Amino acid sequence: MIDAADRSPSAIAQIDVTDTALYTEDRWQEPFRTLRAKAPIQYVPESKFGPYWAVSSYRHIVEIEGKPEIFSSSWEKGGITLSMQPNSMRPGEKRLPQFISMDPPHHTGQRKTVAPAFGPSEVAAMKAEAQARTGALLDSLPIGEPFDWVETVSIELTTGMLAKIFAFPWEERHKLTLWSDVGGDVDTAIGPGGWERFHTHMDEMATAFGALWQERMTNPGKDLVSVMLQSDSMKEMDPIEFIGNLILLIVGGNDTTRNSMSAYAWGLAQFPEERARLEANPALIPNAVQEIIRWQTPLSYMRRTVTQDTEIDGVRMKKDDMVALWYISANRDETVFADADRIIIDRENARRHLSFGYGIHRCVGARIAELQLVTLFEEMAKRRLRTNPVGEPERVPASFVHGYKHLMVELSRY
Fold first, then answer.
1. 195-209, 261-275, 287-301, 385-399 — which is least confidently predicted?
2. Cis upstream peptide for 104 (omega within 30°)
3. Percent helix, strand and coil across the chain, each rounded to 5?
4. % of residues, the chain, pLDDT over 70
5. What is the distance between the alpha carbons of residues 76 and 247, in angstroms, rounded to a whole number?
6. Does the keyword Metal-binding apply (predicted)?
7. How far is Cα 91 from Cα 385, in angstroms, rounded to an integer?
8. How far is it, in rounded angstroms, from Cα 52 to Cα 43?
């Protein structure tokens, strides 16, 4: 490991934005504001994950994402989270290949296989079912009585969509939620017994999807497992690689949508004038969805590993350095988004958010996330339903997944 003294000095004292308390206590905004203003690329020599670069400005993140040959996503170098070191493995750690944690050309072939399942026509075909399931769920909710929005609405809708995409046994769909929660919990994984717990649940998932794999080999359908089986680039993949990609698709398909749905219930209540504008003009729903995704940023960062000594805007980085691209900060960058801490439902550039990433690794399932969110907003509007939070939400204790564990609300009509 190269000594921290070899790195470009920071203009301010170290700010470790992997501290989970920043997110559970919802006080991450000011540290990132300070970093963007004074040290948009800061070397953090000490953290629970080890040394890393914190990149907090929009323009620097876009620049780095545009150089995948220098800033690698490869699972062999540690992948997309800070939990894995570039040249060593923690006790109990195993590494799972996923196409999001691959570099070209391997990444290109596997992404091309999966992407058609999330194309415009395929997503459009899901609309009617999404409307029916969302409407039925909303019609079952009590009016004027408190309930947990996260468990009752956000989790149920996103898990149901995942079960449909994979043609996973409906009565066992709750397992998808558990596996997603464990698969995305990189902060806990590095703690005592963390990797053992991670791999226990991933092995359970491997067994379940291995059975689906065998079934779809003889009875293929239109689900994603069947699509993977019939593709040239993925049908012969190693079982470990197959499981790695499933974790990616389950976590990616669950966390972004679930936590944006929860942000809808919580965030709009923080800006009642914007909520009233949306209620009065449902045509703004598609843009409001993008604004909620920007404001929430369901995954706080993505990690890259430096493949060669390089320099970004005068800052020197060394080969094998870990680099955290803090999307959560970029989405509040004042040079891109005016009054960035506010939800503004008709924000003209809301779609410029980086919540789905940027460049070759932009989220392949973004359209499905947007479909589910637009559908929820529309079905709520049809019923003239409004969420009224009852107290503060309980937030996920993590620096990677930025979300909500519980949010008590009451529904009312407007």
1. 195-209
2. no
3. 50, 10, 35
4. 91
5. 17
6. yes
7. 50
8. 6
H/E run at residue 41: strand 41-44
**Residue 402 DSSP class:** -
Residues 1-40 pLDDT 10s: 334 445 666 778 899 999 999 999 999 999 999 999 999 9
Homologous superfamily, domain 4-413 = Cytochrome P450 (1.10.630.10)
Q: Decide the pairing of beta strands 52-55 and 322-326.
A: parallel
**What is the token pair recorded at 273?**
């004038």
Task: Copy the structure tokens of residue 193.
Answer: 């017994």
Rounded Cα distance between 144 and 206, Å, is: 42
Write the CB contacts of 369 (distance below 8 Å, at least 6 apart in sequence).
Answer: 253, 256, 257, 260, 293, 356, 363
Distance in angstroms (rounded) separating the CA atoms of residues 375 and 410: 20
From residue 401, how far is each of 23, 71, 88, 191, 299 by CA, in Å?
Answer: 9, 22, 24, 16, 5
Task: Give every CB contact of residue 154 below 8 A, 6+ residues apart in sequence.
Answer: 257, 258, 259, 261, 262, 265, 404
Torsion, Cα of 286, 292, 294, 295 (10° steps) = 160
- At 241, list the tokens: 């690689």
* Kind of pairing between the strands at 301-306 and 71-72: antiparallel
Cut 0.85: pTM above it: yes
Beta bridge partners of 55: 41, 325
Q: Which residues contact 171 (CB under 8 A, 6 or more apart)?
A: none
Q: Are 202 and 182 in contact (CB under 8 A)?
A: yes
Domain segments of the chain as ranges? 4-413
Give dist(CA 35, CA 42) in Å, integer: 8
Q: What is the separation, in whole angstroms, between the first and last Cα of the chain?
A: 59
